[in-house]
Amino acid sequence: MVFLLFSCSLRDGSRSRVMAEALRAELEGAGEVVEYLDLRDAGLPLCDGDDCYNHPATKALRASVAAAEGIIFATPIYNFQASASAKNIVELGGSMFEGKVVGFLCAAGGRNSYMSVMSLANSLMLDIRCYILPRYVFASKDSFSDGELADAEITERIGELARELVRVSQALSEN
Ligand SMILES: Cc1cc2nc3c(=O)[nH]c(=O)nc-3n(C[C@H](O)[C@H](O)[C@H](O)COP(=O)(O)O)c2cc1C
User: Fold this and answer.
1) pTM of this structure
2) Helices H, strands E: what count in the chain?
3) Dihedrals φ, ψ of 65, to 5°?
4) Is the dihedral of CA 89, 94, 97, 102 positive or negative?
5) How many CB atoms lie within 10 A of CB 79?
6) Residue with CA nearest ligand 1 atom 5
7) What is the band of 174 on the pLDDT scale with cuts at 50, 70, 90?
8) Is the CB of residue 39 less than 8 Å from the CB of residue 85?
9) Domains of the chain (ranges, CATH numbers)
């Protein structure tokens, strides 16, 4: 199976990228194939609903989404929502997401934004008909030390998310 992992933070020192890399290691350690897309390097346009769909990077993105069985967004929480860069992926990918299993890794400053990913999840679920994993991982800055994960519970939850991604994607691909 092929899994697609988006690292949506555009800053060096990103905590959600640390979480993405931990999830990638879990999946690859289990023998899964992971396509990892760091949005700092992807050269994607902002969605304009028009010419953006002719951009080579958008075409590559849409092909990657279409080819993936399961997709994870590692996203910062900005203003009580997933980042605009994550939403842009959904706008560019559009119907390519239909039927895909989708999960989330979220990095936030504090704990009060726990449900912040739900707006994007609802759109993916009810508009584009993705299968949203009900288990997701939310980490505040307290879970990190010196740029590394320092919270055994978050590390465990990332492992659980990886296993759930594979389990649900495999089950759906058999039907
Ligand atoms: C514009 C902006 C808005 C933010 N909004 C929130 C927020 O609503 N809730 C929160 O807990 N943290 C918020 N933060 C803090 C980030 O979520 C936090 O720094 C997180 O680690 C960013 O992800 P990254 O480390 O992967 O870049 C905000 C940060 C910025 C720059």
Assistant:
1) 0.98
2) 5, 9
3) -65, -45
4) positive
5) 9
6) 78
7) confident
8) yes
9) 2-173 (3.40.50.360)
Residue 13 CA: which ligand 1 atom is closest?
A: 25
Residue type, 2: V
CA of 113 to the centre of ligand 1 (A): 9
Q: Tell me which residues have their CB closer than 6 angstroms to ligand 1.
A: 9, 11, 14-17, 76-80, 107-110, 113, 141
CA 109 from chain center: how many Å?
18
pLDDT digits (tens, 9 = 90+) for 85-113: 999 999 999 999 999 999 999 999 999 99
Name beta bridge partners: 74.
Answer: 7, 105
The residues with which 71 forms a beta bridge, in sequence order, are 4, 102
Distance CA(165)–CA(55), nearest Å, equals 30
pLDDT digits (tens, 9 = 90+) for 34-64: 999 999 999 999 999 999 999 999 999 999 9
